[in-house]
Amino acid sequence: MNAAVDRTPSSILGPAQLGAALPGALRKLDPRALLATPVMLVVELGAAATTVLTALDPSVLGVAVTVWLWLTVLFGALAESVAEGRGKAQAASLRALQTETTARRVRGGGSRGGRGLLDLATDEVASTDLRAGDVVVVAAGERIPGDGDVVEGVASVDESAVTGESAPVIRESGGDRCAVTGGTTVLSDRIAVRITSDPGQSFVDRMIALVEGSQRQRTPNEIALNVLLGSLTVVFVAVCTSLYFVADHSGARQSVLVLTALLVCLIPTTIGALLSAIGIAGMDRLVRRNVLAMSGRAVEAAGDVDVLLLDKTGTITHGNRRAHEVLTVPGVPRERLVEAALLSSLADETPEGRSIVELLGAGREVPAGATLVVFSATTRMSGLDDGDRRVRKGAASAVCAWARESGGSQPQAVLDAVETVSASGGTPLVVAEQIGAGPVRLLGVVHLKDVVKEGIRERFGEMRAMGIRTVMITGDNAVTAAAIAREAGVDDFLAEATPEDKMALIRREQAGGRMVAMCGDGTNDAPALAQADVGVAMNTGTTAAKEAGNMVDLDSDPTKLIEVVEIGKQLLITRGALTTFSVANDVAKYFAILPAMFVVAFPQLDGLNVMRLSSPGSAIVSAVVFNALVIVALIPLALRGVRYRPAAADALLRRNLLLYGLGGFVAPFVGIKLLDLLVSLVPGL
Ligand SMILES: Nc1ncnc2c1ncn2[C@@H]1O[C@H](COP(=O)(O)OP(=O)(O)OP(=O)(O)O)[C@@H](O)[C@H]1O
Ligand SMILES: [K+]
Ligand SMILES: [Mg+2]
């Protein structure tokens, strides 16, 4: 590897990982770094206090408590550092992609349109000098010097350095597969690329920041939990302070040292220490599945997704919509249809347009003086104006509307051909022309064919089992949409959708209280990707789509959402389970150690002293040691995550409450008792 290639899960907490994580962990002991986790900050302050107290008045108890309080803080820092370390190797191999290369920048290219760029003069510049807007020419065998969109030409590109997938991909101007990533290599042909990112802001830069965890921001859920843990801490500080005065007053004086140790045992240190590691590990699990999540909030949202919207072309289908045949109609000679279809496509830079020229044979030039009419998702037509002749091809509804406006007729034969192509799941493009102000004449139909991605049906079935509804949204007509929807097995579809329609649908679902995920690849999907709670852009898609979404799937597999949802659920469940465990643990410690601490002063407490710990000193040291070791014991679970099985949410909740609540309550009684047997052997305790 390649960043994304090394995805074999290594051992989670071996000596190697611990060794590598130690320097990072020591840096995290800086109190300023601990401000974000109030629980651990209190432990550190406590450790500092007992250090001073023990220095002033040395005792075996003081040394034992102090050492283990420092270890408690260190274990927490270590958990976070181990979690971060898992991304470091990936980051290093990604950096290898960023070595400086020489780029051929087109002179004056930035101000020109998309044609003829490949023939312009170029200057050699360092890749680091490229800025957004520059146009470069890249030929076979060369590395693409920066992120950008192909503005002219078609090439096969090796993206394995980024995606881990060794099969080359096609990148071409005009369509939804125009985006290229800096650091990848052109295998054949020559392309002109308009650079879209300034140095330091590229996709690989973002990937590095992501796998290193340096970009991680706490999610709202995490912040809320931290506030809750902080409040619990404040409550226990109050409890321990009042305990000091109560004990003093009743003649069972407790030292500040012992009460500090007690405080640390009672505050939720387990979850406080592991919270951040849980979040980092969740992001890391996604990276290992080739999904880059730009926000932790999106990962959490993924755990609660109700509806998944998918774009059709390039998401559900492979996205190389290609001309397959032309369908003639009575009264229009085939040559005339072919000529019009060709004319309307000669200047069309979209893959669809180019495939028509390929099918019908080139050999025709764009007539001098003709004006091009480029395709847009709103007009859904493209073509050319040559003098007073207008030739168009486009979606049936769009071309028919144009014909109607001009007073032209819509022959049944054309409508039948449209129906035939659509019913087979193909995309019909109606070809038409208008001379002067005369009526628009429909000449025939071009059949564009695309293939549904393999295995997608079964995966949508799995989503249904998880309670997620799938809806396909497409700019294509309703009949085609229905045919593809049936073949792919989606629950519902929306046809003839404009970019605004896609976004409006998401808003409606969200207004109904549902959590919406969207998978898409096109520039016309960008608004919807931005609006969705979870917006997954296909890596094959456009730069606009990748920037609008909050995740990028390097494998461009929309069914990857299943894994994303599982990881999201797993993250929420893990955090919930460890919080339950932590709090139950602390409550149990209260009952386990308080009677042991006070039994000497109040023999009547003996009935409550179920633990029969050997001495108050041994009780408190055992509790502190147990408290610290629990953190270490749970690091692997925090990193790996609690296993998620598709099951009803409340059944899962019951099971976890039982397992982690009850387990958390029982564990200290057993653990502290065993430790006490050992600790009581130490002279002086
Ligand atoms: N180059 C083109 N020239 C003319 N018409 C086109 C061209 N490409 C597509 N169309 C027509 O415009 C419609 C909308 O295309 P577009 O690519 O915007 O769809 P979309 O909204 O991305 O949906 P999806 O990707 O799910 O099919 C197509 O169904 C087709 O009928
Ligand atoms: K604790
Ligand atoms: Mg599309």
TrEMBL record:
Q: Where in the cell is it found?
A: Cell membrane
Annotated binding of Mg(2+), by residue = D521, D525
| Topology of the protein relative to the lipid bilayer | Multi-pass membrane protein
Q: SUPFAM superfamilies of this UniProt entry? A: Calcium ATPase, transduction domain A, Calcium ATPase, transmembrane domain M, HAD-like
The entry's ATP-binding residues are D348, E352, F375, S376, A377, T378, T379, R380, M381, S382, K393
Q: Which part of the chain is the P-type ATPase A domain?
A: 103-212
Under the heading InterPro entries, the entry gives: ATPase_P-typ_cyto_dom_N, ATPase_P-typ_P_site, ATPase_P-typ_TM_dom_sf, ATPase_P-typ_transduc_dom_A_sf, ATPase_P-type_domA, HAD-like_sf, HAD_sf, P-type_ATPase_bsu_IA
Q: Which domain of life is it from?
A: Bacteria
The record's section on Gene3D superfamilies has:
Calcium-transporting ATPase, cytoplasmic domain N (3.40.1110.10), Calcium-transporting ATPase, cytoplasmic transduction domain A (2.70.150.10), HAD superfamily/HAD-like (3.40.50.1000)
The catalytic activity of this protein is classed by the Enzyme Commission as 7.2.2.6
Q: Which HAMAP family match?
A: KdpB
Family label: Belongs to the cation transport ATPase (P-type) (TC 3.A.3) family. Type IA subfamily.
Q: What does this protein do?
A: Part of the high-affinity ATP-driven potassium transport (or Kdp) system, which catalyzes the hydrolysis of ATP coupled with the electrogenic transport of potassium into the cytoplasm. This subunit is responsible for energy coupling to the transport system and for the release of the potassium ions to the cytoplasm.
Q: What is this protein called?
A: Potassium-transporting ATPase ATP-binding subunit
Q: From what organism does this protein derive?
A: Nocardioides imazamoxiresistens
Designated gene of the protein: kdpB
